[in-house]
Design goal:
The protein has two domains: 38 residues; 74 residues. With 114 residues, it is mostly helical. The chain contains two helices and no strands.
Amino acid sequence: MDDRIIEIEKNISSLETSVKDIRYDIARVREDSNRGDETPSWIKTAGVFVLLTVFANIMASVWWASKITSTQEQIIEDVRENIDEIEIIKDLNHEVMLELNRLSVILEGMDLGN
């Protein structure tokens, strides 16, 4: 009977060791699975850096587009002013030519009268 009790104690000890090993393995698998869900910090840092770079690039693009638009509007305004001035100059030139023509007719009349 003592042999039987010793055999049972050995089996119980072996089972306890097996249970401890199984619990250790379960804990290790849980830790590994939790680590698998974690993204490495360098990837997170790189992702944040990429997002900030894209945001900065978008802001720079918007700024350049705004600057180009305002420059185009200024050029269009300058061209309109120049066109208006050219038309005014043409009208003044036409009036000056008419006046010169009238004066030359008057001068010719004075020359003929002498």
